[in-house]
Amino acid sequence: MKRLSALLCALLASFALPGQAQQYPSKPVRIVVPFAPGGGSDFIARFMAQRLTETLGSQVIVENKPGAGGVLGIEQGVKSPADGYTLTLIASSYTVNPSIYKLNFDPVNDITPIIQMSQGPLIVVVNPSLPVKNIKEFIALAKSKPGEVTFASSGQGSVIHLATELFGTMAKVKMNHIPYKGTGPALTDTLAGQTNVFFSSAANAMPHIKGGKLRAIAVTTTKRIPALPEVPTIAESGVPGYDVILWHGLIGPKGLPRAVVDRINSEVTKSLKLKETAEQLQNDGVAPAGGPPEQFAAQIKKEIGVWKKVAADAGVKQE
Q1: Three-state DSSP class for 262?
Q2: Which of 19, 238, 223 has the alpha carbon at shortest distance from 119?
């Protein structure tokens, strides 16, 4: 009799699970953004939160938890209950952080990747006074003056820092790193000619490129971008295989139910396919991404390995 009761309970539970998935969400969902309000990550999170509020039928709110290069907010997000009511927005820096910071979580095994939402390049920009018009000329200049050409970054151990170090390694040039506390001051000094080159996000660089205050000599992705079709990629300019993408994505804690993952992935995918979504993201210099959770998981794992090697080879450590 006890065995029959147990079987009946198990049977009832199996019928209940799909119902629970269909009921999700039954209360507000929060997206933890591990960066300060007003930046590109915050914009994408709020834009997608608005879309998901409409499609999920429940309020989706954004909570900014900045600090330690995004590590503090991410840690809070991944250590939340795996019930689908706390999601975390991550950016490219997520795969750099394990090389720079001592994390209190496993960046691969303690998360549930859901979907990559955006993708875009860094644009290699120089002050117009620098006598180079393309990457080949820049490499030649850097090789003729080892350690004298300066590159700005948004901070020691930032994705911009490591992207430039990767370029230096692959192009076999030695440059002098000038770290700044954020993209703003790094860009300002490049505009003023205090530093020679900066690997900038498209959103920050485009107004200055159009205004003639910066010269774009390459993009870091393997394909040219529609906004600057005349600007070649680094890979086609003499550094084959170079490929660095800026991206944003959603993750949940380890053990997030597959039904919840699929629901969020599906709703985000629908939003990414809308024309107005592409237009909004283009304002921030990126394009829609998408794809299954497994694809995003593979991207995260691959990049962590790449940046660990770059950081080790360049001797990059947290200051």
Answers
A1: helix
A2: 223
Q: What are the backbone dihedrals phi and psi of residue 282, each rounded to the nearest 5 degrees, phi first?
A: -60, -30
At 180, which amino acid appears? Y
* Number of Cβ within a 10 Å radius of residue 178: 16
Helices (H) and strands (E) in the chain, counts: 11, 11
3-state secondary structure of 36: coil
Enter the tokens of residue 86.
């706390």
Alpha helices in 67-158 (DSSP H): 71-78, 93-100, 135-144
Which residue ranges in the chain fall short of pLDDT 70? 1-22, 319
What strand order describes the sheet that includes 287-288? 60-64, 29-33, 86-91, 246-253, 111-120, 287-288
DSSP H or E stretch at residue 272: helix 258-272
Contact 77, 249 (CB under 8 A): no
- pLDDT of 18 reads 44
Give the chain's domains with CATH numbers.
26-120+245-314 (3.40.190.150), 136-237 (3.40.190.10)
Query: What does pTM read for this prediction?
Result: 0.87
| CA distances to 264, 281, 289 from 277, in Å | 16, 6, 11
Residue 235: which residues within 8 A CB-CB, separation 6 or more? Answer: 222, 241, 242, 243
Chain Cα centroid distance, residue 313: 22
How far is residue 183's CA from residue 189's CA, in Å, rounded to a whole number? Answer: 10
| Type of residue numbered 142 | A
